[in-house]
Specification:
This protein is an alpha/beta fold. About 50% of the residues are buried. Helix content is about 35%, strand content about 25%. The mean pLDDT is about 95. The strands form three sheets. Strands 7, 8, 9, 10, 11, 12, 15, 16 and 18 form a nine-stranded mixed beta sheet that branches. The chain has a seven-stranded parallel beta sheet with strand order 3-2-1-4-5-6-17, sandwiched between helices. The radius of gyration is 20 Å and the shape is globular. The chain binds NADP nicotinamide-adenine-dinucleotide phosphate (NAP). The site of NADP nicotinamide-adenine-dinucleotide phosphate has 33 residues, from helix 1 and helix 13.
């Protein structure tokens, strides 16, 4: 039983707090800290109501490494779980180095003033963490996170070489709002409006955002959805760590309604991230937009339907071509019944708890900075089945894999 510190009291932070509280044999004293104390207290009250456990709360500015380090020392935390925003990653890694604490997150660093995310900034901490004898685990959400572990597990158990990887993220849920994002609107909109990049024959190729799309039918009657190719951060680490990959792509479903609203918001300048002067005050349009959109952590009540996120993987086993699809289906209403959150926060928060569990158990505790696919996937895969995200896999013919045909319907 080890003390931990969770930073960030949003949709994902709430799920992490609940799920850690549900595993008392691993997670000792839990402190939930964020910018707004009242949000931490509200989550702590819900955790108490659902699990009977009391968790501590604190206010912290995660952009201030010294202040966070003092909180780490005060709580005696052995691991900091960062589920604040990607802007805080480097300051929180610094705080962990100052206070001698392991680090974990679910999204890679992104500077506030440039809509660009990549691992270089965090990989540059390798030597510092190694020298300090501390562990940093990057990207332990669903994507990145589970999708990386699915790939590592496929390589360990089903392939000698992986050649192509297509990560397909479908949210078949409906929140009943005219427009809302499923996680932090600012991060979400920066991500989906970015240029698309995919890996092909040893290099990343750029294409305009949302320019390539196709229908995808999910298994188990989740439905058929239009999926759009886009850049996603796990592509960068996966092509580095699995060098046999010839092509790697990421796809996400969007409804026509979401795309219509996004186009208008872009056209009128509401997705800009540079400050504009309004009545003598500088405001960033995208940050203002976040303030008026529905809060993703409040969507649980109204969201119905299921998510289906998985990987189509092809390669060679014993000299023969092989293809598989490995996936999880998660029901929004079931997540709400269990922890009071919709499935996007749930599918991120559960793997965050599971990644933390592997570090605290010692199996993934190795000095340095690690992407999740660099670790043995088996215990993590078993924990997914145990803790609310059961997965399945099916063998595909090469033609089915080419067509993303994963059902018999
Ligand atoms: N890998 C995946 O599958 C995946 C999927 C979805 C999301 N994510 C990541 O998960 C993280 C959390 O997402 P979310 O939807 O929960 O976001 P959210 O609802 O906006 O929550 C973010 C939390 O961080 C707090 N925060 C922001 N800046 C802070 C600062 N300087 N000091 C202290 N606290 C600060 C916010 O405080 P306030 O409440 O005061 O604003 C809020 O409580 C994001 O990094 C997102 O990219 C990963």
């Amino acid at each position: 039983m080890m003390p931990i510190l969770i930073i960030g009291a949003g949709g994902v932070g709430s799920v992490v707090a609940h799920k850690c509280a549900m595993v008392p044999e691993v997670f000792g004293e839990i402190t939930l800290a964020s910018r707004t104390l009242s949000k931490c207290d509200a989550i702590a009250a819900e955790v108490k109501m659902r699990t009977g456990r009391t968790i501590a709360t604190a206010m912290v500015d995660a952009d201030n490494a010294e202040e966070t380090a003092a909180l780490i020392r005060k709580t005696g935390a052995k691991l900091l779980i960062n589920v604040a925003l990607p802007y805080q990653d480097l300051n929180l890694m610094d705080a962990c180095l100052l206070a001698g604490c392991d680090y974990m997150d679910t999204a890679n660093y992104e500077p506030l003033d440039v809509a660009k995310f990549e691992y270089s900034w965090q990989w540059a901490y390798q030597e510092k963490f190694q020298t300090a004898g501390l562990t940093a685990l990057l990207g332990s959400g669903f994507d990145p996170g589970v999708t990386n572990v699915f790939t590592a597990w496929a390589l360990k158990h089903h392939f000698d070489e992986i050649h192509t990887l297509d990560i397909i993220d479908v949210n078949g849920g409906d929140h009943g709002k005219a427009f809302a994002t499923n996680f932090n609107p600012e991060i979400n909109i920066r991500e989906v409006t970015a240029e698309c990049r995919h890996w092909e024959d040893g290099t990343f190729l750029g294409t305009p955002p949302m320019s390539k799309h196709q229908p995808f039918t999910c298994p188990d009657g989740v439905g058929t959805f239009e999926i759009y190719r886009m850049y996603h951060e796990e592509l960068e680490s996966l092509v580095k760590h699995i060098p046999t990959l010839r092509r790697a792509q990421f796809w996400m479903s969007f409804s026509p309604n979401y795309l219509k609203h996004l186009e208008v918001l872009q056209n009128v300048g509401m997705t800009r991230i540079d400050p504009v002067l309004y009545h003598g005050i500088e405001i960033v349009p995208l940050q203002f937009l976040k303030a008026v959109l529905p809060n993703p952590s409040d969507l649980g009540q109204s969201t119905k339907g299921r998510t289906c996120i998985g990987n189509v993987i092809t390669g060679l086993k014993d000299g023969t071509a092989k293809a598989i699809y490995i996936y999880n289906i998660c029901d929004h209403e079931a997540c709400f019944a269990e922890v009071g959150s919709q499935a996007i926060s749930y599918t991120t928060g559960v793997p965050a708890m599971i990644g933390a569990k592997q570090i605290l158990a010692g199996d993934w505790r190795k000095p340095g900075v690690w992407n999740i696919e660099q670790h043995d996937p088996d215990a993590f895969m078993a924990d997914l089945n145990q803790h609310g995200l059961p997965w399945q896999f099916i063998e595909l013919t090469p033609e089915q894999a080419r067509e993303f045909q994963v059902t018999t319907q």
